[in-house]
User: Fold TetR family transcriptional regulator from Streptomyces sp. SID14436.
Amino acid sequence: MQPMTGTEAAGGGLRERKKRATRAALTEAAVRLAAEHGADNVTVEAISAAAGVSVRTFFNYFTSRDDAFVVIDADVAGRVRKAVLEAPADQPPLDVLRDALAVELAEAERQHELWTLHAAVLRTSPHLLVRSLIAHMADETAVAEVIGLRLRAPAAAGADTAPVPSPAPEPRGDAGAAPATPGSDADEAERRRALELYPRLLAAVAGAAVRVSVEHWSFRQDERTFADVFREVFALLAAGLPAPPR
Assistant:
């Protein structure tokens, strides 16, 4: 999936919201500093200072400096997976995924500048771009897994207790919390091998739909809202991508 910034509507208690806000502040500081000075010239100390937190707090959220540049909101995929599992069982998978993504993209127009800066940072730092692509592939795999779960066990859809597959343990914002440990390449390959075609395709198509929506709207901001473009993209997908009238 493309970089996305979660909203306050994601829920959670005050402590969870503060943790999300701290992580978001660190990521935004890292991206803005990297856009101005180049990622290789940005230190953990500079990022922490810009975000108004200590270096120790930085390492509660990230295992290394480069982790702060990889994605804008590392929790998005988890929220999308949860929303997919909790959606009504009779709702079509494409609609379920569209609605889950729409919540995460609710502030797309406000966050567009940060997304643009993030894309520029990745373009000028090939090693960060590779890491970002790997992270998005892992998220895509996890989304495909929950789609597959809905298809195999529709009765589980809509249940608050449904398990949420995760590509790796998420880092916590607690003081002294241990950082996340990514899964191995072998584990990731095995998970992708286990996927059926439809869930894999739907997760990939949804990711492409988000990217196309963002890029198309970027060139037409004076003409249409992002929400309008996003809805049209998914309407075209739902209709089977019919050729437009001549």
